[in-house]
Amino acid sequence: MRFGLCCIFIEEPIRFRTTTAKALAGLPRPEQYARLSDICCENARSLLRAVQTVHSLGIGAFRVTTPFFPRYTHPEVGYTLEELPGGEEIRSLLAEVAQLRSRLNIRLSFHPDQFVSISSLRDEVVRKSLAELEYQGLVAELIGADVITIHAGGRQGGKEATLQRFQANFPLLSERVRSRLALENDDISYTVKDLLPVCEQLDIPLVYDVHHHRCNPDGLTVEEATRHAMATWRCHGREPWVHISSRRNSWGEGNPRLHADYIDPDDFPGCWQGLELTIDVEAKAKELAVRRLMLVLGLS
DNA sequence: GCATGTCAAGTTGTG
DNA sequence: CACAACTTGACATGC
Known about the structure:
Blueprint: E1 2-6, H1 21-25, H2 29-56, E2 61-64, H3 87-104, E3 107-110, H4 123-143, E4 147-150, H5 159-169, H6 175-178, E5 181-184, H7 192-202, E6 206-209, H8 210-215, H9 222-234, E7 241-244, E8 278-281, H10 286-296
Parallel strand pairs: 1-2, 1-8, 2-3, 3-4, 4-5, 5-6, 6-7, 7-8
Helix pairs in contact: 2-3, 7-9
The chain binds a DNA duplex through helix 1 and helix 4.
């Protein structure tokens, strides 16, 4: 078993910067490039330190923040690495990341949020989502990330029709993205049961989120869902990836979908013990939560 | 210097 | 039909 940290650190002094389209819009183009170049360069350095740091904490995976190259696909202020004054330096830093993560055996991943929806009814949304995935695919290739996890989308026109659109639009992605794409069950619409046939058709793996499964059950037990999801990875000789989190309030106050600071050990599926799995820990206390879970499970 | 507001995104649900 | 809510942390702004 390896455990994964998601996007940021709470105690370790590693931060990822970003900026907004609005803040950039007022600047002349060269100044936009200069500012973006600074941020991307700093983020590349931070990622290098992040890989070193998770390794020293005994953590085996790291999810890269979505705005790693902020506003990269934005219609007005978007850019390419070649346009940035520090473009070459950034590329070489990312190559260092790839080398280090390979040497330390750290898995890297991306997880664009719900706004990336290639099954949308709106062409414009699909177009922007494809562009966003291509951006993440580019960075994934440069740093050696092997998974980009997304959700199936909303329910416009019904779940079946939405999944059909997902499958119809999938071939529009480059091989770079398709070979990394994985589908994750969500907490309101698409369950493991819904997604398994899609994953099979498209020959892509399923990321099993046990918390979403508990919010949005489908008749499968945790053990069954785990087994089915794992098979979608194993058939390609890849290590399966799963997510775990705990709801913020055990008594259902407030929004049950909010993540808690730490993982309640009771939420950890007993059947996961000893499996060859990468387990992303989605908890607000970040690396502290990963460490505590490992400690409770007797793994550190 | 700190507190509050803003930004970014798509979908769903409400009024 | 229009718009708020959802989510989240860093940026940006104002006092």
